[in-house]
Amino acid sequence: MREMVQAELMKVRTRWLPYVLVIIALIGVLLQVWLGGYVTYVNAQYSEDQRTALQLMALPWSLPSLLESGQYWGSILIGVLTASFIATDFNWGTVRQSLIRGHTRGEYLVSKLLALLLLATVGLAVALTAGILSSVLATAAAGAPVTLHVAGGPSVPQLGAMILRAGYGVLPYALLAFAISVVTRSTAAGTTAVVLYVFIESAVLGIFGQLGGTWSDLRVLFLGHNVSAVLAANRIAGADSFPSLAFRPQPSPGDLPNAMTGALVVALYCLAFALISYRAFARRDIRATEGG
Amino acid sequence: MQVAPERDATTAGRDGDVVLRTRGLSKRFGPRLAVDGLDLGVRRGRVYGFLGPNGSGKTTTIGMIFGLVRPDAGEVSLFGADALEPARILRRVGAVLEGPSYLPHLSARDNLRVFGLLSGGMPPARLDAVLELVGLTARAGDKVRTYSLGMKQRLAVAGALLHDPELLILDEPTNGLDPAGMREFRDLIRELPRAGKTVFVSSHLLGEVEQMCDDVGILKAGRLLTQGPVEQLLAAAGVLELRVTDADAAVHVLDALPWAGAVTRDGDRLTVEAPPERAADVSRALAERGIYLRELRAQENRLEDVFLHVTGEAADA
């Protein structure tokens, strides 16, 4: 399996897409910290605006904000990478190179997933590191104190847990793109599916939340609502809301399932997407004339 | 024409000699039966040509051998074991598949590194050796997207040979090769059995198969029409050409011979489908009826004649 994962990583090593996606993520991080944070902070005329800008910019408040934005936009970027990573293997016929060399279809999918996990981890880690460094620099530039030690602020182990929660929130969207691109063998289909899913789900969750009653209760079935439940555990000092670049409703913690329930529902979604991928791939005839 | 039976010298013999066998292999795509009850046997150390017109089911058969295409019925065994359980058996097999199967943004060397990793890892020296073998050393660092079709095909062959497989399965391997490349390729294939390897090569190029194969199987519309050693098929498909004193009477005599095939007449010149070793029997049968030979010779057969006859396309050719 190690060699298979290495082979998958070699396949993308000289492709431009992963690097472009990392650059987009870095631009997003810089926009959030410097434009949304620093520039707003130094130009704010009201203390409320200054406080909001500080939460986007200054540690430790910027961390949940960066992770929320990172999970949301990271899901889309990783979805695009996933769709391309899978579909090009079909289009280039290289999926057959694994299978004719004695690997099972299950092994092939697992190696793809592990390689994607590594790529996604590296990409998101680069973006997060850039975000933290930017936070430190922007906070210092604004003359605010640079520290993690605030009331209700996270310890270092808690910081690790926050990052893992955000990463866990990316996983189901990556698996959605994985499943769609395995089924359709199309980068466009996988990318479109994950983008539409994220945006439409955000809109539907907002509408259901506004409608209240049964509609509001139905949100517990949605992936995004449960991801929000997991990420709610990242909020510092139980803040009801905080600024981020994620275009989705930010319900108060009391309006969300608890983090464990959310994590369980997310796991079920992940399992469903993985099963769809496996079932579709395991039953398929792979012919050269069908792009793979 | 006498045609070798389906289970003949190719499938006969000890099972240990057969490295690739299919039994009753069938596949249907919608209403079309692509492969119909295929029984193949490929013996160790031989070059087996899998001949058939385009669309006859060759690629589908190869897909089923590798588990890329799921058979509707039948089974495939490699080295005496089920080809799919365990899949590890495929590690002893190399393949050139129809259609592209490379990473265009990587160099040939990096493509081989990837394929090597998929085969469990290959030392750099092995990569160099196969690049040298297929004549790609000088361009090994160039991106494959800049290669000609023939160079890509050489890369495919290098990928198939990379892990030093015991059995090579090649689907139309000379597609895109220029005449010199095709000749080099044939020479390479002819060398492989001397290293103990077995080759199964599908092609629609009759001359190519005749020149490089020991055994041949002919497929049409998914059915294996015949298989056996090339020499045996050519001999069985012989044609005798003769001139006689009484052509009308001779036609009746030849038509009545149970082992003879179709008889054709052009003036006093007759042809009869019969192997060369039957020449004496033809002479005797005619002489017994008072018909005497002016000339009798065996036409030199080519695999093309066998193929056209067996596939029933002679009339169209």
Report a brief summary of the structure.
The complex is a heterodimer of chains A (292) and B (317). Chain A is an all-alpha fold.
Please give the structural blueprint:
The complex is a heterodimer of chains A (292) and B (317).
Chain A: H1 2-13, H2 16-43, H3 47-57, H4 62-91, H5 95-99, H6 105-141, H7 156-184, H8 187-211, H9 213-217, H10 223-232, H11 259-282
Helix pairs in contact in A: 1-6, 2-3, 2-4, 2-6, 3-4, 4-6, 4-7, 4-8, 7-8, 7-10, 7-11, 10-11
Chain B: E1 18-29, E2 32-43, E3 47-51, H1 58-65, E4 73-78, E5 81-82, E6 93-96, H2 108-118, H3 124-133, H4 149-161, E7 167-171, H5 179-191, E8 198-203, H6 206-212, E9 215-220, E10 223-229, H7 230-236, E11 239-244, H8 247-255, E12 263-266, E13 269-273, H9 279-288, E14 293-299, H10 303-310
Parallel strand pairs in B: 3-8, 3-9, 6-7, 7-8
Antiparallel strand pairs in B: 1-2, 1-4, 4-5, 9-10, 11-13, 11-14, 12-13
Tell me about this structure.
The complex is a heterodimer of chains A (292) and B (317). Chain A is mostly helical. Chain A has one domain. Helices cover 74% and strands 0% of the residues of chain A. The two termini of chain A are 22 Å apart. Chain B is α/β, with parallel strands linked by helices. Chain B is 30% helix and 27% strand. In chain B, the strands form three sheets. Chain B has a six-stranded mixed sheet, with helices on both faces. Chain B has a four-stranded antiparallel sheet with strand order 2-1-4-5, with helices on one face. A four-stranded antiparallel sheet of chain B has the order 12-13-11-14, covered by helices on one side. The interface between A and B is medium-sized, with 26 and 36 residues.
